[in-house]
Amino acid sequence: MESIKSHSYEVHLEELAEAALRQHIAKSNYSKVFVLVDENTKKKCLPIFKEKLGERADVILEIQSGENHKNIATCSKVWELLSHHNGDRKSLLLNLGGGVLTDLGGFVASTFKRGIDFINIPTTLLSMVDASIGGKTGVDLGSLKNQIGVINQPQMVLVFPEFLKTLETRQLKSGYSEMLKHGLIMDADYWKGLKEKNEFTDALCIKKSIAIKNDVVIQDPTELGLRKILNFGHTLGHAIESYCLENPERETLLHGEAIAIGMILESYLSHELKGLSKLSVQEVKETFLKHFGRVSFDTADIKAILKLLKYDKKNSHGDVNFVLLQEIGTALTDIKVPHDLFNKAFAYYAE
């Protein structure tokens, strides 16, 4: 399957990924090759990956999985391990894991010795189609999502769909949520076809989602304009994800689950402010509720979630900026939302 070219790197899929990895390591004369894993990818993915890598897995570094470990403390642990094992500026870090690990691993590599090479090998659907693509790296600040980080591109991204066999359905659906987002913001036909699929993990669907995100990133690598559309559903979705993360009495939501809620809410706002049709809003709502079900929020929950909007990374000059849909396949950026519409959006979600 043909690779996808970005400005400074390529995304290789399936058999081309293995060949590209071996060729890159053979020609690059790295002093050491580190592989970053968590307890899940160490057990389920590392044995498979070692066969593809050959002999150059010099040191395995392990962190704990989960969003609650995506923080500076974990970074410090990895920086110390890199130093302990004599990592230098000619070292390579291979990030073998989901979105938490590739975000954190990319940030660690970008800052260790003022920057070493890294390669992302995503093992979850979410990471394959979204998190590992585009060069965004970083960690959370407490429960606040992705507040600390840099944009720095990997040497390459290697996608092996066989890793998806190690995942439970809930994790696969989390990635499916981001794939549906790609259709909503850029490609109405992709949305239409994808939302009817029962099997969405085939390589062609994965490649299509990667291509959509990559095309946006190529046009706007540092998120000055167009790239903001990738945040559709994320303004309220991230606030919901953070709220559930910091409240132990609530079930923690996976990223795609929170963003699915965010996309329903922000579709409603799109109807109220930018003319998205009622039929389209209902289509979005029915599609996501079919796959994710409904989460209950009372008045106190909603108030607390809305307070978290002030930390959104798209904010400017004290304003909360939203990405909304004009129609399915067309997104608009930097939209201000009157506060009274938020409660109406949550009421629509709860209906």
Automatic annotation (TrEMBL):
Lyase recorded as keyword: yes
EC number: 4.2.3.4
Cofactor annotation: NAD(+); Zn(2+); Co(2+)
Residue ranges occupied by any 3-dehydroquinate synthase C-terminal domain in the UniProt entry: 175-315
Annotated GO MF terms: 3-dehydroquinate synthase activity; metal ion binding; nucleotide binding
InterPro entries documented for this protein: Dehydroquinate_synthase, DHQ_synth_AroB, DHQ_synth_fam, DHQS/DOIS_N, DHQS_C
Protein name: 3-dehydroquinate synthase
Organism: Flagellimonas aquimarina
Gene: aroB
